[in-house]
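Researcher: Going back to the complex we discussed earlier. I've cleaned up the inputs and rechecked each line, so this should be the final set. Can you rerun the prediction on the complete assembly and write out the structure?
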Amino acid sequence: MMGEGNYDDSPIPSSNTFIQNLNWTGSIPVVLSLATTSLSSPSSPRPIHKMISRVTYLHVALHEEVMHMSRYAPAAAGLSTAFAVRSVEEPPDSPAERDGGVEGGGNCEVSDSAAEQEESACTMQSKGFKSSHDYFDCWFEDEASGIPLRWQLFVGVLYDLMKGKAVLNSSSGRGGTHDQHILPWRIRLHFTSYPYDRLLPLDDGSPPSKVENTNDDIEGSHRRITALVGRLFRNSLKQALFMQYGSSKVAMQITKFSHEKIWDSVMTSNYAAYHEVNADLQSGISSSPISSRSTDQDDQIDQLQLIPIRLMLNDRPAIQNPVMHRKDSTDIKRRPRDLAGDLAENVSSCRTPPYTTFGDFLSNICPNHFVMDPATGQVTSVPGSCHYYCIQGVQPSMKSPLVDLWRALSHPDHFLYIIVVTE
Amino acid sequence: MSQPSCATKNDRDESIASAEDGKIYQALNDGKDAPEEPTQGKAKLEKIKVHLVSVGSAPILKKTKFLMNADDRFAVAIAFLRKMLRLSSGSSSVAANSLFLYVNAAFVPSPEERIGDLFDCFGTRGELVVHYSLQEAWG
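Model: Rerun complete. Updated structure for the full complex:
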């Protein structure tokens, strides 16, 4: 068993609440511009700079900006029938937008008058036209790589993926922070040609009557999309809770009111409100990290069935493998197949701790890039492999227990998103 | 700027999905992994037993247990069930009949989740239980 002295990482604050609070305040400077293909007015809107939170979603965070830019977009984007009344709004005479701010400082938001509401109301008469829902569905694209940004992922996760690619592509090689070249993050907004082959559609089959006040205008579209993203978040949370507790009991006990409160807190990046509701769901959140314990204290942590982890590998959808907290656990209901075998081998070598570490996870899931030295239990990169990894923008030590990382760095849906970008 | 290798798999699947397949990632249709596959290799032909259970007024199927590829995405299961129940998929949510699929009567997985992953995390007694209904049952 490794002694405490081997954990020579600088001591982390014992309060996970403190760290989570930091997570929620993390933001990324973004420059949003309208794609030329979605422009249908004589003048193009100037790009907008904004700081958006890491723990929110693009459609939620950039709502106002999308509203503003939709006035420059084709009025009947996505429709191709003769029924649609085409009208193109005039750009405002004296634009109220302010363009400014440089990276790291810019916090300029556009504040328009309420006149835009009545402008969008007279755009089309599409009663009975079935696909009017898709009317104002917008999507975002990373300017640097041209990759459509998946709306179902957190902003922080998306940014880390883009940053990983940029880091690998830059000539100075991997590692280190190259934020000054990557920030502000340039995003392009589209209203046309939704890439159905690369993004999930912005509807999930819910009947439109489920969302209140869904009108055929940009505001109604936003409400619908927000509701959709909210549903996805809620289901993600329920999945994570199921994995944590091994049954759907806790997940199903959450009241509708609590769900709404949690979603509201995510939309407004309000950690205090989130923590109020989440404390009930999260047993063991205030326990001290495993690495600083002297003995194997039997506490609520051991009730953790599986650690909810999603691995984001390049552009692939999330990989969700069952990961146990303790390697020698025999009381799990769902045994992960190969994972249990490999981990058991590591336990037998007395150099490795009895709980799953970050290095264990990486070396199991990406054996081409991370390898564990059986003699020392040390996990290192495979020589010659080119990759970038991070969690919430930081690169924790390979020796960190996964459960500590999860409690400190998980996203609001209780999942720990680990980003790995490879060449 | 060069594209990462995994992004090229979008190019491989050129075919347009038929209307019955619903709207899913084109690239996810083929369950093959990119050539430079860093993740731990699982048997590509691994099959998962999926047990479909109807809820409420949803039509009951004669055959309820199916084998699906572990590498398929959940969207494949959704499209498959739509076909079995003869629900139109349509081009928008208004035209399509709504269909909700729940895992373990608790949550709706994202269409892009891998069935194999879902089984590993949530499977019981060797099968993945999926409830389906025409209305939202469990929020």
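Model: Worth noting: Chain B has three helices and four strands.
Researcher: Good, that matches what I expected from the previous run.
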